Amino acid sequence: MAATAPNAYAATPADTLVQAWAIDDIITLDPGEAFEISTAEVTANTYSKLVALDPTDTSKIVSDLAESWDVSEDGLTYTFKLKPNLTFASGNPIRAEDVAFSFERVVKLDKSPAFLLTQFGLNGDNVTEMAKAADASTFVLTVDKPYAPSFVLNVLTATVASVVDKKVVMENAKPVTPTEEYKYETDFGNEFLKTGYAGSGPFKIREWRANEVVVLERNDNYYGEKAKLARVIYRYMKESSGQRLALENGDIDVARNLDPNDFDAVASKDGIATTSAPKGTLYYFSLNQKNPNLAKPEVIEAFKYLVDYDALGETLIKGIGTIHQTFLPSGQLGALEDKPYELDVAKAKELLAKAGLADGFTVTMDVRNTQPVTGIAENVQQTLAQAGIKLEIIPGDGKQTLTKYRARQHDIYIGQWGSDYFDPNSNAETFTFNPDNSDEGTNKTLAWRNAWDPKELSANTAAALLEKDTAKRAAIYQDLQKQVLASGPFVVIFQQTEIAGYSNKVQNYKLGPSFDTNYISTVSKE
Fold first, then answer.
1. For the residues 446-451, what does the mean pLDDT come to?
2. Angle at 432 between CA 377 and CA 479, to 5 degrees
3. Of the residues 21, 61, 85, 481, which has the fewest C-beta atoms closer than 10 A?
């Protein structure tokens, strides 16, 4: 009898990069609506913006579509001059009119990330005047206050500021019936761009199938240096062990969700290289203040004493993160490294008793079913039980848990938050700013999602944007962090270090300081 042949795996094509990654958080690919970790990387490689973050020095802004820019003396007008001979993937020319339209559609659609632009005073009634084309190659943005220019420019590096092809978008726009909440007669191509494409980046989006695959292909009309690879495929694989096996067998080129043990294992394998990069991404869980038990100040404090930070640091996040308890990640202006909390069940019980909950209570946590989130949730479940709190874990994919969270329908949510741009306001605003705590509120920050109304902190956060003195501005953010650390409904656990294992056939594979600086156009294969 012939011996049974081992399983055979087809090597990935030489012109294609195949990455395994948990992409179940993708809800939409429309850059005017997308607000998820995975989507940030996809849009960063498929759309262009006026300016971009320098991935080698996050304190610097570099040109993308804009050749140059200047700020008026009063700090209210930003004028951008576009580079010549720019084209979209469609072949259509990129004009200042397209930039203005991109800002207009974001503001009028008013999806989750719209607040990044509306914070400059833009609204549906004034956006066409405040964000307009002066001529074919000149875009002018007027803001309502003399913000620190670095803040404005950093915001314009966010996904929401991506420039879309007006002609393609409007050809695919659908008519809608105006309502009291949405008064426009078009969807501005929102339905089309959920799965479609109208950009100008080094790659174009060919296909997205939810919880299965994203396929990018080279944009041969790209105005810069053409991508080395013909296509990039993101395969949905959530299990670390499955990614490790696929990488070792040559079925994929890059594994993106390896746990510490599997990362160490592939690092010792011939033919496999590893890389890592500190990210401005925080893992945290938050307490919905609509839940009367979770709204008690003593309960909020007790939860911060019911996390075994040391054990998590030595196991689940070893090599993929560092313990961090404040809302600004290390490396950003004003970031604090204070870590006052440790596992202290006795202290937590004392606080629960003061809250009138000496016998504990039952509560739920929405958990994305990927690591390390699931493992952290299970660990917290055990430590909460020691204080009499019964935690019911509700598992779901990234889209399910995020959608529920954004609707303020959770008790506790555990997940990650990545800075939208490299300015401390990105995190300060989402953790401390909530000007309208009603369910109809339009600034859907993390504070809003958790029904937390920190009025004084909201005012201080807004004031920090007008402070030109860097040291004074940093001091404001340090004070905000101390107050959230003491009384905010957020339990920040660690700051992520992104890791990846990859075939040594892959050349120039690098992870950036944020997910939207994980650029792949320079990657090649032997």
1. 97
2. 105
3. 85
Q: Quick one: pLDDT at residue 11?
A: 82
* Contact criterion met (CB below 8 Å) for 410 and 469: no
* Residue bearing tokens 């039980």: 385
3 has pLDDT over 70: no
Contact present, 360 and 389 (Cβ < 8 Å)? yes
Q: What is the pLDDT of residues 235-246, one digit of tens each?
A: 999 999 999 999
Single pTM value for the model: 0.88
**Structure-token pair, residue 169:** 């978008």
| 3-state helix vs strand vs coil in the chain, percent to 5 | 30, 25, 45
Question: Hunting for tokens 């850059």 — which residue is that?
Answer: 31
Provide the 8-state DSSP code for 225: S
163: pLDDT strictly greater than 60? yes
Handedness of CA 27, 31, 36, 42 (dihedral sign): positive
User: Contact 356/318 with Cβ under 8 angstroms?
Assistant: no
Q: Look at residues 106, 108, 130, 112 and name the one whose alpha carbon lies nearest to residue 120.
A: 130
Contacts of 205 (CB under 8 A, 6+ apart): 29, 42, 46, 196, 197, 199, 214, 215, 216
Q: Do residues 24 and 239 touch, judged by C-beta distance below 8 A? A: no
